[in-house]
Recover the amino acids of this structure.
């Protein structure tokens, strides 16, 4: 029932852990069982993404993983698309394996409404997935 209830929020790509706890409570999932339930939905069914072991992401539940993966794919592929990034950005990535902050911001701005998450959460997600190294601004 909890998994189905999360689908009622599909207009959003993420919920806070507190919002999930309220939804879970309505489905008779106690707070002490919530972590186990989120783990199951993440690892066994793949219907959500929850990174409870990440200090920066532990209060976020991604309820539309397909949106997240679509944006991350766009982020990576845009680096190689000449129309979307400058030659210097492309060269920087090719030589050093580094994305420039401007590249990350461009992709985020293009998908901000679809992602439904703040920029700092997007950066934390990219860091957690090892797509970006830790930023000096975090």
């Amino acid at each position: 029932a909890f998994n189905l209830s999360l689908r009622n929020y599909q207009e959003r790509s993420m919920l806070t852990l507190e919002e999930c706890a309220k939804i879970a409570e309505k489905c008779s999932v106690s707070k002490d069982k919530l972590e186990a339930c989120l783990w199951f939905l993440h690892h066994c069914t793949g219907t959500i993404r929850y990174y409870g072991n990440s200090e920066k992401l532990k209060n976020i539940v991604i309820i539309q993983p397909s949106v997240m993966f679509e944006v991350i794919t766009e982020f990576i592929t845009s680096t190689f698309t000449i129309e979307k990034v400058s030659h210097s950005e492309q060269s920087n990535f090719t030589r050093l394996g580094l994305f420039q902050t401007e590249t990350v911001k461009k992709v985020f701005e293009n998908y901000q409404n679809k992602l439904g998450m703040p920029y700092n959460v997007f950066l934390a997600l990219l860091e957690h997935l090892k797509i970006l190294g830790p930023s000096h601004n975090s």
Notes: The chain has a mean pLDDT of 84. Residues 31-45 form the longest helix (15 residues). The radius of gyration is 17 Å.
